[in-house]
Specification:
The protein is an alpha/beta fold. The protein has two domains: 85 residues, Leucine Dehydrogenase, chain A, domain 1 (Rossmann fold); 136 residues, Rossmann fold (3-Layer(aba) Sandwich). Helix content is 40%, strand content 16%. The model has no long low-confidence stretch (mean pLDDT 96).
Length: 295
């Protein structure tokens, strides 16, 4: 009998986390604190506009304050930095982020570094990255935390497991590795990071008890690269042309889903896997920032 992987339902787990966050929001409101999340959007990137609308909608559903600041693509970097300074000083804004990608004439690192680390909703500030690495409490990166929650809430704890991460970005690969190697509950994994210069990639991915794909290449991970019974976390979201679709395209992950389902024990779908978790963890970060500010 061919194996059929169990689907890891990111929508369901994200809904559970949102319910937990909603309870915390209600408790904070009783103390006179309404968590506030701000987003700075520069330019006309269609995907960014979709993400920002989703974040604003999530805030509304949870009873949080949402502040969206939209700037034109030709805005100067100084204008963005001035807005960041204003948000750093605004007591109604407990956490915020500057949506990437930024226009090419801006230095994204300079903008991120200007954010108050205590209000860094994405967990990208170097101070928070450093705290993550050494295991201190910090604002955590949303997508890596979402991946970890998916593992732990579905009975697939990484503890004592070999986790292979394909991708070394500052957004997913590196911070996820830092999360999973911590001496902490729900971590304690042995982690291998693979990337574009890795030799004999398939030989390494086939060793994974948990395989995480985060490289941005459609359906790159094939069934032959997956160990029988592995857990597969697919972070990728890629548009591929599909004339049969009303939109002319369909969304696929970094994993060949049909092939992977024959080998994996459990797998995240795309869409509906890691994606919903990212916004849920963002909401949790905003509430955490509000609780810290309230103290």
């Amino acid at each position: 009998m061919p194996r059929t992987a169990r689907l890891i339902d990111g929508k369901k787990i994200a809904a559970e986390i949102r319910a937990e966050v909603k309870a915390e929001v209600d408790a904070l409101k009783k103390r006179g604190i309404t968590p506030g999340l701000a987003v700075v959007l520069v330019g006309d990137d269609p995907a960014s506009h979709v993400y920002v609308r989703g974040k604003a909608r999530a805030c509304e559903e949870l009873g949080m304050n949402s502040f969206v600041h939209t700037l034109p693509a030709n805005a100067t970097e100084r204008r963005v930095l001035n807005l960041v300074k204003k948000l750093n000083e605004d007591p109604k804004v407990h956490a915020f982020l500057v949506q990437s990608p930024l226009p090419k004439h801006m230095d994204e690192n300079r903008v991120v570094t200007a954010i108050d680390p205590d209000k860094d909703a994405d967990g990208f500030h170097p101070v928070n990255v450093g705290k993550l690495l050494i295991g201190e409490p910090a604002m955590m990166p949303c997508t890596p935390c979402g991946c970890q929650e998916l593992m732990n809430r579905t009975g697939n704890s990484p503890e004592g497991k070999h986790v292979v991460i394909v991708g070394r970005s500052n957004i997913v690969g590196k911070p996820l590795a830092a999360l999973l190697i911590q001496k902490a509950r729900g971590a304690n994994a042995t982690v291998t990071i693979c990337h574009s210069r890795t030799r004999n990639l398939a030989a390494i991915t086939k060793q994974a008890d948990i395989l995480v794909a985060a490289i941005g290449v459609p359906e790159f991970i094939k069934g032959r690269m997956i160990k029988d019974g592995a857990v597969v976390i697919d972070v990728g979201v890629n548009r591929v042309e599909d004339p049969a679709s009303p939109r002319g395209y369909r969304l696929v992950g970094d994993v060949d889903f049909k092939e992977a389902c024959k080998k994996a024990r459990a797998i995240t779908p795309v869409p509906g896997g890691v994606g919903p978790m990212t916004i849920a963890m963002l909401m949790r970060n905003a509430v955490l920032a509000a609780k810290r500010a309230g103290k």
